[in-house]
Amino acid sequence: MKLLVRKFFSWYISYILNKDFKTIHFNQVTLQDTAVLLLANHFSWWDGFLYFHINKIYLKKKFHVMVSEENYRNVWFLKYLGAFPVYAGSRKVIESLQEAGSLLNKPENLVLVFPQGKLYSNQVPSVEFEKGVSAIINSSEKKFQYLFAATFVDYFEKRKPSFYCYLKLWQSQEYLSLQLIKKAYNNHYEHSRQLHSRHAV
């Protein structure tokens, strides 16, 4: 039953993305045979579905994503697509972060985290990082690879909008801090914004 539900919604997500969007643009990256921590900006209801789709057609890892307790409870099929809840404001939040960290110890996994923790405009100049990102990393064996994603939506001359997803692998340093990751991600985010602006011209 679980497999059937997963297959149906996997197909349905691709269907609605192709139906509601003109195209999904993303660049190629070469992954190693280790787990992936995918850090991405969070600006729409579509974000998790977009990365689920990109992972299915290109990255091909076992997909996991942290979602709010409310979304996990209200959108019943998310658990079949690799979602697990973050119980914000309770002691269970530590367990959720530790679970995410343990998933990064298995090379077949990809864990999607939105470091902002909530929705922000697609036009923000930089991306904020909540402290939970550090807890996830510190709960792992730190043998995974970082993948940054900066995504924007535009219509240009088309009736339907398109996704533009800029991916970048990042090599972590021996002495790592949340501020260092945040700075590296925002360098990629700003570079992607500039690339996207030139595309718009």
Can you tell me about this structure?
The protein is α/β, with parallel strands linked by helices and 201 residues long. It has a single domain, classed as Glycerol-3-phosphate (1)-acyltransferase (3-Layer(aba) Sandwich). The chain has six helices and seven strands. A seven-stranded mixed β-sheet has the order 1-7-6-2-5-3-4, with helices on both faces. α1 crosses α2 (47-59). The protein starts with a helix and ends with a helix.
- Radius of gyration (CA) equals 16 Å
Q: Any guess at the CATH architecture? A: 3-Layer(aba) Sandwich
The strands making up the biggest β-sheet line up spatially as 1-7-6-2-5-3-4
Domain module count: 1
* Secondary-structure element order, N to C: HEEHEHEHEHEEH
Multimeric state: single chain
The helix/strand class is alpha/beta
Q: Helical region count?
A: 6
* Biggest β-sheet description: 7 strands, mixed
Low-confidence segments, given as residue ranges, are: none
Q: Can you give the mean pLDDT?
A: 90
Helix content: 25-40%
- What portion of the residues fall into strands of 2 or more residues? 15-25%
Question: In terms of topology, how is this protein built?
Answer:
Elements (H helix, E strand, L loop, with lengths): L1 H19 L3 E3 L9 E5 L6 H13 L2 E7 H6 L8 E4 L5 H12 L5 E5 L18 H7 L6 E10 L7 E9 L7 H23 L1
Parallel strand pairs: 1-7, 2-5, 2-6, 3-4, 3-5
Antiparallel strand pairs: 6-7
Helix pairs in contact: 1-2, 4-5
